[in-house]
Specification:
Blueprint lengths: L2 H18 L2 H18 L1 H8 L30 H37 L1 H16 L2 H9 L10 H4 L4 H13 L2 H14 L3 H8 L4 H9 L4 H24 L11 H8 L8 H28 L5
Helix pairs in contact: 1-14, 2-4, 2-14, 3-4, 4-5, 4-8, 4-9, 4-12, 4-14, 6-8, 9-12, 10-11, 12-13, 12-14, 13-14
Length: 303
């Protein structure tokens, strides 16, 4: 093991120790892992218990929690617990995928702006500022309400069961990359003046190689922290749009449209709103605590 490997291992060990001292972050990480595994096991639970999340049972409408129906049944007699797990699959998937796509866009914009500087930096940062200045929720509502048939997409695509999921990912990622872009640009401005970058330039390395091989690996910490913190906000935005009927559309379940279905039954069957609402609240809080813990661990000077 050479010196650089030993140094990297030491830095990782110190980061892990700092993270483990952040009790809320550790608990939040375990909670997120538990929710992800539980949501992913929804088909297995269906199979083992011999139930169908979409099967209508009008005789079992609003059944209370029991050994057979752990969280009761909804207004159509469908098992709430399994539908909540399927909703978790969609909401967590939207949060993770959208955050990754937004992080990739933001990293590219910030890296190019910070390294190239000059008019390219000015142009990309004014573009970033313009996106930040837009009223987020009204913009998302307008974009989510667009008729896809009028955008020239084929009928096969627009009639797909998962088209609402793909659209939410694209829409939120389109406006959610700005935080990562600004963080990456700031870090790149500092890194491009470091000795190892100047040495790479002196050896004739291309700009693309310097950005991807020498600078990008050193941007890992701010990118991971910003991406983790954004997942909670994205889940919240997806839930809001789905609650307004502009997000994930039935029969695909998400925590947001489960809340939509429950809003007219809030007085007669309040548990139908409490379960998805609590899932959204706890998951968003958990991602925020996890992001804080990662920031303390990976960027101790910024904490």
């Amino acid at each position: 093991m050479n010196y650089s490997d030993t140094q990297a291992l030491s830095a990782f060990t110190l980061a892990r120790q700092r993270f483990l001292r952040h009790r809320l972050a550790v608990v939040s990480g375990l909670f997120i892992l538990f929710m992800a595994v539980l949501s992913a096991s929804a088909p297995l639970i269906e199979s083992v218990r011999g139930i169908d999340a979409n099967e209508v049972d009008l005789y079992g409408r609003f059944a209370l929690p029991s050994l057979d129906t752990w969280l009761g049944k909804d207004e159509l007699g469908r098992p709430v617990f399994v539908r909540l797990l399927y909703g978790g699959q969609v909401s967590l998937l939207v949060g993770l995928v959208t955050a990754l796509v937004a992080a990739i866009i933001g990293t590219v914009v910030g890296l190019v702006a910070g390294y190239r500087g000059g008019w390219i930096d000015a142009l990309l940062m004014r573009l970033t500022d313009s996106v930040i200045a837009l009223p987020l929720l009204p913009l998302l509502i307008v974009l989510a309400a667009l008729d896809l048939n009028k955008l020239g997409l084929s009928e096969i695509v627009t009639q797909s069961e998962n088209i609402s999921l793909y659209r939410i990912v694209a829409i939120v990622a389109l406006v959610g990359w700005t935080t990562v872009a600004r963080l990456v640009r700031g870090s790149t401005l500092s890194l491009r003046e470091r000795d190892f970058v100047l040495a790479a330039k002196a050896q004739g390395a291309s700009s693309l190689r310097i950005m991807t091989v020498h600078i990008l690996p050193n941007l890992f910490s701010p990118i991971v922290v910003a991406t983790t913190l954004s997942i909670g906000n994205i889940i919240l935005l997806e839930s809001v749009l789905s609650f307004l009927g502009l997000g994930i559309q039935p029969p695909v379940a998400s925590w947001g449209n489960l809340l939509t279905n429950a809003q007219e039954l809030i007085f007669s069957a309040p548990w139908l709103a409490i379960y998805p609402g609590a899932a959204i609240f706890l998951t968003v809080i958990a991602f925020n605590f996890l992001g804080d813990g990662l920031q303390d661990a990976l960027e101790p000077k910024a904490a």
